[in-house]
Design brief:
204 residues, mainly beta, Lipocalin, eight-stranded antiparallel β-barrel, 10 strands
Length: 204
């Protein structure tokens, strides 16, 4: 009886899983569906990396980003991107350090709870890449930043049936220019931002 139940369970699992593995993503950026998109918060992440005393690289993450994207592959220069990230979510897997980073000597999350990036210019640099320049507001300071973005793929999410775009992006800022100067330059001023983002198309 147990063997029969186990076989039935495996068969049912295969039936459920099969449609999920059958999904095929489209990596052709020219075929992206134009429209308005909303950031999929659960599947997007901002990571920062600094040099730690010249000994090693150290990184952490900012989960919980939210935002919107307006995109038409035939008119890429008209792209509009607006993303806000809560700084209080910073995670380094070190609880003591996380508490320090949200404090007044670092990010001061109580006074400046979010960082925000609003695009001002998008320039195509390749078949699936673009430079996205915009204003980054962090720690109460706004400065221009350019992100090098790469389109990964588009597909219908098999779980929620939403047409979804995937992107990766990188950029470098000097944290002291935003007033975050603790331990600089022993902990590097240059901070690398690495972003993975999924955007779901909204009903027109």
């Amino acid at each position: 009886m147990k063997r029969i139940l186990a076989s039935a369970f495996l068969a049912a699992s295969f039936v459920v899983a099969a449609p999920l593995v059958a999904q095929q993503a489209n990596t052709n950026a020219a075929q992206i569906e134009a429209g308005a998109y909303r950031l999929d918060t659960s599947h997007s992440l901002v990571r920062f990396t600094v040099d730690h005393f010249g000994i090693s690289e150290f990184f952490g993450t900012f989960p919980g980003a939210a935002g919107t994207l307006s995109l038409d592959p035939k008119s890429l220069s008209a792209t509009k991107l607006d993303v806000t990230v809560p700084v209080s979510t910073v995670s380094t897997t070190n609880a003591k350090l996380d508490e320090e980073l949200v404090g007044a000597e670092w990010l001061d999350a109580a006074k400046f709870p979010t960082m925000r990036f609003v695009s001002t210019k998008v320039v195509k640099t390749g078949a699936s890449s673009a430079d996205v320049t915009g204003n980054l507001t962090l720690h109460g300071v706004t400065r221009p930043v350019t992100l090098k973005a790469t389109f990964k793929a588009a597909a219908v999410n098999p779980m929620n049936k939403a047409y979804t775009l995937g992107f990766n992006a990188t950029g470098t800022i000097k944290r002291t220019e935003f007033g975050v100067s603790k331990y600089a330059p022993l902990v590097s001023d240059e901070t690398v931002l690495s972003i993975t983002a999924a955007f779901e198309k909204q009903p027109s």
